[in-house]
Structures are given as C-alpha cells and as structure tokens.
Amino acid sequence: MPRTARLSRDDWAAAALAALAEGGAAAVAVEPVAARLGASKSSFYWLFENRAALLDAALELWEREQTDEVVARHAGIPHPLERMRILLRNALSDNRADLALRLTGETHPAVLEVAGRVTRRRLEIVAAAFRELGMEEEQARHRATAAYASYLGTFALARVDAAPADIDAYVDTVLACYAP
Predict the structure, then answer these.
(1) pLDDT tens track, the chain, 180 positions
(2) Helices 51-63 and 30-37 sit at what angle, rounded to 10 degrees?
(3) Within this chain, do residues 82 and 15 fall inside the same structural domain, yes or no?
(4) Domain range for residue 86?
C-alpha cells in the first residue's frame, strides 16, 4: 500500500492479522506492522491507543471474516449435511483458515479468549447441524468435536506437507465418519 494512502483501522488490523498468522501474538508489534503497510508508527497512534488495541482489532477481524461472515454466507443452505460439506470444503481450501490452528496454541490471554469463543461457536454450529440430522444432544456434541478436530488436524498435516491432495474426497470421508 503506498505511503500516501490513508490507512483505516481495518487496514492495520489486516496487516496485524497477517503478522499473527505468520508469527503468533508476539509478531503483532507496531513497527513491523507499520513496515508491512509502508506506514509510519505515528500514523498507528491516530487509530489505536496501543499494541493491545491492534491485537484486539486483528482478532476481531479474524472472528468476523472467518466465522461471522462464513456462517452468514452458508446459512441459506437448507440441508445440514450439504451445509457442512460446503463449509468444510471452503475452510480447507482457504489458506488463511489455518490461523485457527495457530490461535488454539497461543497463550496470550486476548488470543485465548477469542480463539475459545470462536471454537465454541463453531462447535455449536456443527453440533446444531448434527442435531438437524437427528442426533441426540450428547452425540451431536461429540461428533462436532471430532469433526472440528479433523479440521484442525488437517492444517497440522499441511504444515508437514501431508495434507490430503483431493479435498472433496477427504471432506466426503470426514463427513461419512461423523454424519449418520
């Protein structure tokens, strides 16, 4: 982004989110994020009080883009199994989605809070789909946990170049394991 462009809070948050994805919470620092944007540190302080506010903005952006907006885009898919298939396929095809894996391993309190909230929400969304398929509450929660663990595990495998090559076949296999 050219230096002359006026940067918004979301611009800074997106750059901080990229830093978070690459190096964890410790990588979200004013100078490196400013450098990533081609901006000055002083421009940061027009928008944010401190580094913690930047980290919070990055986490809010991740939650909004990777959970709220994703759920909203797929809410109109009437059949729960098809909804889960499309959600999982899209999530596994999105290179930014593996941030969920990084965030679940963070120890920073702000990251833990948001990662926990997002994880609980995602688990509830999957469990609700399993309940729509006729499962009892406890079984739906257990299967949602197993399916989400498969999702996170796939990104862990991708880090060592062992992820499945055929995402569609993999998604079908995962859902066959957990859906009735």
Answers:
(1) 445 468 999 999 999 999 998 888 999 999 999 999 999 998 999 999 999 999 999 999 999 988 899 889 998 999 999 999 998 888 888 766 567 767 777 889 999 999 899 999 999 999 999 999 999 999 999 999 999 999 888 888 887 888 888 989 999 999 999 887
(2) 60
(3) no
(4) 76-180
SS3 of 62-102: the string is HHHHHHHHHHHHHCCCCCHHHHHHHHHHHHHHCHHHHHHHH
Instruction: Supply the pTM of this predicted model.
Output: 0.85
Distances, alpha carbon 52 to alpha carbons 49, 58, 115, 166, in Å: 8, 10, 16, 40
Shared domain for 113 and 37, answered yes or no, is no
